[in-house]
Every structure is written in structure tokens, then in C-alpha cells.
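User: Okay, second chain of the day. Same drill as before: sequence in, C-alpha cells out.
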Amino acid sequence: MMAAAAAPTVAVNGGVNYASQAYLLSKAVKETRVLLADLCRQFYNLGWVSGTGGSITIKVHDDSIPKVNQVILMSPSGVQKERMEAEDMYVLAANGSILSSPSPKPYPHKPPKCSDCAPLFLKAYDMREAGAVIHSHGIESCLVTMINPLSNEFRITHMEMIKGIKGHGYYDELVVPIIENTAYENELTDSLAKAIEAYPKTTAVLVRNHGIYVWGDSWISAKTQAECYHYLFDAAIKLHQLGLDWSTPNHGPIKNVKGILGTRGNMHSSVKVGMTDSKYEEPSPRCIVLDIEGTTTPISFVADVLFPYARHNVGRHLSATYETAETQDDIKLLRSQVEDDLVQGVDGAVPIPPNDEGKEEVIAALVANVEAMITADRKITALKQLQGHIWRTGFENNELEGVVFDDVPEALEKWHALGIKVYIYSSGSRLAQRLIFSKTDYGDLRKYLSGFFDTAVGNKKETRSYVEIYESLGVDKPSEILFVTDVLQEAVAAKGAGLEVTISIRKGNAPLPENHGFKTINSFSEI
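Assistant: Same drill. C-alpha cells below.
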């Protein structure tokens, strides 16, 4: 059993002090205990506090006690809310210290524990001078945060129940901030406080995939608003199911995700989810396959940074790693490629002496061939594999850092949140692809990527390569894959395999011929 804290001193009538242990047994406290237990039962029946989740807290109202010294009653954590009784409540001082704890109950009841929400409740009391706070796990409050996982706000207007929210009328836009959930409830305290500060008009904060905190200047105000919020969330979900946009005055058809939850925050999605002009919009892709150079990453980064780094460091890399199995495998691939090049009469190809003629002679010949291959920008596995290993050293030594266009990280995050799998298909090795996305100004972006394809599946300008990708991704039809590239020949090859194709127009990319027939974008935000 948790021992009750020493009786606090409460100021009354302008300075007369008295020990408040008797006050904890007063009529006002007893009635609030009973009220709290009754509300828990009601909220259980509404689905707000099922499974022991959720919590309620009320500040005891007593005109004889200054507001700053009035005690706070709070439901415990991890108990069956519908079976709670008045004596099960915790009593806290305004600063959060426990004044009275409930007695433990026999098995199978758990030992009493103050609500994990306590720090969050105290923020609402302190920052909003609340008289009561309700934390609900109602399913409506969870689902409404999931419709657009990137939105940091819920917005709705022109609904009668908005009038039940303090400071709002029918024509007003109700805005409720959304904060991200954490593994432990008390870890939400800082983000809740920031949301309260950022939205001075709000009387609630949504927690994504979790629930909502609602406060009012009394338990009646908090309860009324909580009921209105849940009604509005339920209405929004049903309107969304009907293809209607609740955030606009006329609640017309949803045109895109941006219209669903408002336009603030990091909302830039144009994924179609409803109808426009009585016609269904094109469905969003199940998978997106991205080229790198000229699509996610400036051509200049590849041409002016990566290629020169590989060219300047190939000799050093081969010398330092010559005896390793990895480099010996690289040399074996290069020997085979050079032998073919010599037969074909490829410019720049020079014979590579056998290993027994000496390490330095072998490396010199390898360097000459690699430099010629890089200069010709050849898309061959032998070169790409070696380049990947050289670049890996550069990234590990902080001599290289991946570069992506500014719109790329946000788009990757958005697609990931929407459940769209994103893959990379580049002529660079899969190792090189991972390196570029693993260490960028925006951090490690690999968490948003589901896989990598390189020339092992085939040449990027051949239709068969895209058939291989389609058959490996597990979609029902190739049109469920969107391929984005800056190269027209690649676009044609992918279209031939049945993929949807968009061409990326970026600064530094080669111009396209007129009437090429493909959709183009200047930013991933347009996808």
C-alpha cells in the first residue's frame, strides 16, 4: 500500500492555515470521488476507457479553498474502470504530490498505481487552468489520426456539434493538434505541452494511434466537449467513407488527401482517394520504383563527386585491399570484362597481366581500365561493383555524403506512411545505392525503402528488366508499379513492360524531345 503523504497546509480566508487531512475527508472531496467513479462507468460504456485504458481527473471545487490549493482527484492506472469505487481514487496536490492513495485489493486485482497520464494532466491544469481533464481511448479519436498519417492537425468546419467546443461556432474551423505516440504515456508530456502552447485556442490534443486529451474549466465542460469531439471524429470518418471532405464548408467530394485534414503542417499529398466530377480518380500505386541520378539525386553529384572520387581512389583502394577476398572477386570480374572488351575492340581496354607478374603491374592495368570505363560512363557490373566498394570507404571515412533533392525525404516519408512500398533501380550497385541513402543531410533514408535493384536484373533500357522487377514485387499487374526516371529510353522500356511511368524533370537533366508522350514532374510532391 502506498502511504499517504503528510497532510498539506491549505490557505483559507486570506492566510489562515490549517492541516488539510480533515479536508480530504470533507463532503466536497467525497462527492467528487463518487462523481469520478460514476463518470468512469459512463465512459466505459461509451468505449472510451475499455481495457483499463484512459483516465479521468477532476479538481475538487470548493469556494472556501483558493483555486491554486484545491486538490486533484485522479482515477488509477491499470484497473477496470467500470468497477471502480469512490475509495479507489488518488488524491493529489496541485504540484502533483500524492496526498492519499487507495488501499490495495485482494487477488486478482493489481496493486494500486497512480495514472501514467498524471504528468500530462498536470500540464493541462497548469497551462490551461483546467478544472477537469479526460483522457479517452475512443476508437474514433484513434482512427481520425490515421486517415492521413502525415497530418499534424485535425480540421473540421460547418458542423453543428462544433458549437459544443469552447470558443467555437458553427461557421468556425475547429483545429485539434495531433502529436505522435510514444511507447510510454508519460513520455508524451513535452509534446503535449508544446501543442498546448502552439494552439492557444484548443481544448484538446490528439495522440496518433492512441486517443485524446480533453480539458475544461469544470467536469461538465470537459465531458461536454469530449462528447462533441468524439461525435465530430465519428462524423469525419463516416464522411471520409462516403468520399466527402469534412474540412470544407460544403463537404463536397474529396479531391485529394490535402483536402482531408487541412493544409498546415507537412501535408503535400496528392494521392487520390475520392471522386471528382462523378468520375473515380486514378488509384494510387502499390509500389514506386525510383531511378537515382537525375531523379532523386542531382546528376552533378554523381558526375562531379562520386565518379571523380572513384577515379582518384581506385589505385589506393586496390593497393590497400588487394589481398581481401572481396577485392579479388572485383578483380576477377574486371578481368573477365576486359577480356571481352579486348575481343570487341573497346576503346581504352588494356590487357591485365596475370597475378604472378606482380601486384603493382596488375593494379596499374586495372586502374587504366577502370579510368577508361568511368570516362565512358559504362553501365557494367564489374565497374559498378568496384565503385560501390570504393565509395563505401569514402562514406565510412566521412569523405562522402549522399545528396538528394529537397522534396525527396518528405515524399519517401509520406509514401511509407501510406503503405506504398518504394524501391530503387539504378545502374549503380545495390551497395552504392544504400550508401547514397544511408548518409544524407536528412539522415538515413533507407528506413523508407523496401529494396534495391541494379543491373543484375538487366539493362535499364531493356523491357525485360522491368518484367523481372514486376515479377519480383508480388503485385497483381505491372500497372500497379510507378517507375520514375529522367531517361526517356528507360521510360519507354518500363512502359513496354506495362508499368506506369513518369519522367523526372530536374535542373541539369537532359532535355526531352517534343511529343514524348509521358507525364512529367518537377518535384516528388506532384506524385
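The chain is about 35% helix and 15% strand.

User: Thanks, on to the next one.
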